[in-house]
Amino acid sequence: MSASRRPMFGEQQRFVLLLIAPAALLLLLFQVVPIVIGANASFRDWALYNPKKTWIGFDHYVAVISDPAFLYVVLPNTFLFMVLSVAGALVAGLALALLLNRPFRGQKLVQTILLVPLMVAPVVAAIMIRWIFNDQFGIVNVVLEAIGLDGQPWLVQRWSAFGIILLTDIWLWTPWFTLLLLAGLQSLPKEPFEAAAIDGTTTWRVFRFLTLPMLRPVIVVCVVIRAIDAFRTFDIVWTLTGGGPGRSTELFSLYAYVHAFLNLDLGRGSAAAIIGGLIILVIGVVLYRLVDRIAKA
Q1: Reduced to 3 states, what is the DSSP secondary structure of residue 4?
Q2: How far apart are CA 81 and CA 248, in angstroms?
Q3: Among 25, 55, 217, 258, which residue's Cβ finds the most Cβ atoms within 10 Å?
Q4: What is the pLDDT of residues 195-226, one digit of tens each?
Q5: 117 cis-preceded (ω within 30 degrees of 0)
């Protein structure tokens, strides 16, 4: 062997590669391979009743993009849900974090109670909410009728059903925002707030010109992570309404699921999933650029 030939990786680099190899293998098997299989299926006429898997190019993508239900119901519902759920949980979480940032008796107990929604599985929470708003036996209608008002069929009307889905999601995610924002508040320097107290600055001006700007990087990171997650929400909607009444509360993830696993059209379901993945990718890039710009400001 020539003395000039040297190994491509040093001993330390080979050790690092050995450490990350199991994680890389799992990522390849459970992330990359399913995406490749799904992408392949999206270009084929792949259904359980048609095992030939005929290559049809972009036909499934054209069918999804030109589907009026996808354009005028699913996408508007998905973006509306993403914006309102993130905004609602952010406002509620920030308000609770500000309250918990001040010491008071029973603070630990309140913090523990606020964590309860994080311990409840979304499907279990959705089942509870579905029973609470049941038009025959739900406690909400019982209370309304007890005070002389008419009960409502909450889950069979579009906007009331959509509102209940939204409130359930906000309830589940508010503690997550509260914990992260509370950690951010407790890491802020004390000196600017002490100076503002000496100057007699009002609470609102302290929040507007000190707390909010200093907390802005934490808020933006929370919003980015939660917005991407909200786009793929499935379990709450499926359990509460199944996308109904009709298809009026259907979100993007339900659209792909229904085509792939209920209509057994794996090709069109895969195409819908790929389109959704591309939309999430674009949203993620835009939001991360926003984070970078704000962090450098």
Answers
A1: coil
A2: 13
A3: 258
A4: 888 888 888 898 888 888 888 888 888 888 89
A5: no
Structure tokens at 260: 């792939």
Paired strand residues for 47: 50, 265
Sign of torsion over alpha carbons 36, 39, 43, 48: positive
- Length of the chain equals 297
CB 206 within 8 Å of CB 193:
yes
Tally of CB atoms within 10 A around 169: 26
Residue 220, Ramachandran bin (φ over 0: left; ψ between -120 and 50: alpha; else beta): alpha
Greatest alpha-carbon pair distance for the chain in Å reads 95
The H or E element spanning position 263 is none
For residues 63 and 60, give the distance between their C-alpha atoms in angstroms, rounded to a whole number: 5
Q: Give the global pTM.
A: 0.86
CB atoms within 10 A of CB 8: 6
pLDDT tens digits for range 103-140: 888 888 888 888 888 888 889 999 999 999 988 888 99
Q: How far apart are CA 118 and CA 120, in angstroms?
A: 6
